[in-house]
Design goal:
This protein folds into four domains: 4-55 and 220-279, Beta Complex (Beta-clip-like); 60-206, no CATH class; 291-335, no CATH class; 423-499, Tetratricopeptide repeat domain (Serine Threonine Protein Phosphatase 5, Tetratricopeptide repeat, Alpha Horseshoe), CATH 1.25.40.10. It is 51% helix and 12% strand. It contains 16 helices and 15 strands. A three-stranded antiparallel sheet has the order 3-11-10, with no helix packed on it. The chain has a three-stranded antiparallel sheet with strand order 4-8-7, with helices on one face. Strands 13-14-15 form a three-stranded antiparallel sheet. The longest helix is centred in the C-terminal third of the chain and has 29 residues, at 470-498. The termini are far apart. Bound molecules: S-adenosylmethionine. S-adenosylmethionine is lined by residues 35-38, 157-158, 160, 202-203, 224-225, 227-229, 279-281, 283, 285. The site of S-adenosylmethionine has 19 residues, from strand 2, helix 7 and strand 9.
């Protein structure tokens, strides 16, 4: 783990001085490193589950999805649309009033933009509009500025402008043009605006609900100081639109705080490719430093490679030197390239069909197609393959929709060992999978198993999610219920036994 000793001494700009004071209250400080730029360091120890930092977004916007959400609290019930611009929804007058100062200018701009343009607004364009309007409101002191909520922090964010491809820059310029047409702000140039789109691309966070379903996007300029690791010591979760970073490991004083920017299930090469494409850096975290070493080659082949043809062997295959096929590193059995290609082509066409069918909401047909994919993947891939894991995740989702609880439980249990392999022992997705398993077992009357699964879910999720949200209170209540039922059953059995 990185320590303070290597960090450069900093002469901070005034805005960072204010921030320094605010962060000191959390037990944090900002430093810089030659390879990663700014970073967040712990100035005290943090225990697993402890909140490292929490922050309201500078700006945020819900997703354009079929589930509508309140623009302020992101709840999805009792919603009413803004009657003037017809864009944001609010769950009641409290949220609407709290948002009004910021929405007022946005509302006028959106009404002025006309219905056609308004109907085609993407969340990213709205986020940018809100960014400029909030800057204007803070500059004019219509809304307050704080150490953790001011535009100067946005100015400090990395943008990677010099590394962005021409095609992407043209796209940003077009988006910037649209923002300028809507806002008509004289002091914002297309270049500055495009630069801000680039900042959003590497700094904005996808806001997720407690079950990690994406519900919106937000810019959290202090949380954005946290760098990435594929084996992070903390996790970023959201409570409504509040970003909450919690320690998942013990973090000692002087250590850098890391979160993961990406889904870490995958080979080192896949993770590095995603990070390079989306965040424009080459990760050198302890996991990535193993690239090319025997263990890493083996794990990558298991997660994304092919299965040994010899059914009783669970060895991993790598491409042989004449490139005609793949050779098992355990039993030496060779698998022909053409045979692999044929299955891969069939799988690709079935997978395309399955995702189209699922997207159309035809769960019954989607279920049949995914069930045809599963044995083919088992023939081609290793039993711990990521593709197989995705197929089973889809089947679980579909069977839940179809209310086939027995089928869903079967897949939930099949997914668990895959998650245990690809995720660390404290990971929200692993905790959530135990929770689903426990709920299904409880529903199907498997009380003892439900108690075990719910206990495992609580052990993980109390660290990643804390214990204060409605979601966690619900889980803790279910665990108590399962405990009481199991104790009652035991007492009844003991009583029968003693008769
Ligand atoms: C959200 S920002 C993190 C804060 C950033 N270091 C800064 O100076 O503002 C994301 C950017 O930080 C850098 N970064 C984050 N994690 C990194 C890592 N593990 N190695 C190298 N650069 C990293 C990359 O430039 C990335 O695009």
């Amino acid at each position: 783990m990185l320590g303070v000793s290597w960090a450069c001494a900093l002469i901070l700009p005034p805005v960072m001085e204010d921030l320094g004071e605010a962060l000191a209250a959390f037990g944090l400080t900002v430093s810089t490193t030659p390879d990663k730029g700014r970073c967040l360091l712990a100035t005290r120890d943090f225990s697993p589950g402890e909140v490292i930092i929490s922050q309201e977004p500078y700006v945020s916007v819900p997703n354009n999805s079929s589930t509508l959400r309140c623009d302020r609290c992101f709840m999805s019930s009792n919603l009413k649309k803004c009657s003037a611009c017809q864009i944001p929804w609010y769950c009641g007058s409290t949220c609407q009033k709290l948002e009004w100062k910021e929405h007022k200018l946005e509302c006028q701009a959106l009404v002025g933009a006309g219905k056609e343009r308004r109907n085609h607004l993407t969340p990213t364009i709205r986020l940018m509009i809100r960014l400029y309007l909030k800057r204007k409101l803070q500059k004019e002191q219509i809304i307050p500025t704080t150490a953790m909520d001011n535009y100067s922090l946005v100015e400090e964010l990395v943008d990677h402008m010099s590394e962005i491809e021409e095609k992407q820059l043209v796209l940003y310029a077009q988006m910037a043009n649209l923002v300028n047409m809507i806002l008509k702000l004289p002091d914002v140039s297309i270049k500055d605006n495009a630069q801000n789109f680039s900042k959003l691309a590497c700094n904005a966070h996808t806001i997720c609900d407690s079950e990690l379903r994406p519900i919106g996007t937000g810019l959290y300029p202090v949380v954005s100081i946290i760098n990435h690791s594929c084996a992070p010591n903390s996790v970023l979760m959201f409570e409504g639109r509040l970003a909450v970073v919690r320690a998942v490991d013990h973090i000692s004083k002087g250590t850098e705080v890391f979160i993961s920017y990406i889904e870490t299930a995958g080979s080192t090469a896949t993770r590095q490719k995603t990070l390079k494409e989306q965040y424009l850096f080459t990760c050198t975290c302890p996991c990535c430093m193993k690239v090319g070493l025997q263990d890493d080659v083996q794990e990558s082949a298991i997660l994304e490679g092919y299965q040994c043809l010899n059914g009783s062997c669970n060895g991993f295959l790598i491409r042989n030197t004449d490139d005609k096929g793949f050779i098992c590193q355990k039993c030496g059995c060779i698998r022909n390239k053409v045979e692999i290609q044929e299955i891969a082509i069939e799988l690709k066409s079935l997978e395309d069909m399955a995702s189209r069918t699922l997207a159309s909401g035809n769960y019954q047909d989607a279920c049949s197609i995914y069930k045809a994919i599963e044995p083919l993947q088992l023939k081609l891939c290793h039993s711990y393959s990521i593709d197989l894991m995705r197929t089973r995740e889809n089947l679980l989702k579909i069977l839940m929709e179809l209310q086939d609880w027995n089928g869903a439980l079967t897949y939930c249990r099949l997914i668990l060992p895959l998650y245990q392999r690809v995720y660390p022992s404290i990971h929200p997705l692993l905790g959530l999978q135990y929770y689903t398993c426990g709920k299904l077992e409880w529903l199907l009357g498997e009380t003892k198993s439900a108690l075990k699964s719910l206990t495992k879910a609580v052990d993980i999720l109390r660290i990643t999610h804390g214990t204060n949200t409605t979601f966690m209170k619900d889980l803790l209540f279910r665990l108590e219920e399962a405990r009481a039922e199991a104790a009652y059953r035991k007492t009844s059995i003991d009583a029968i036994g003693s008769v």
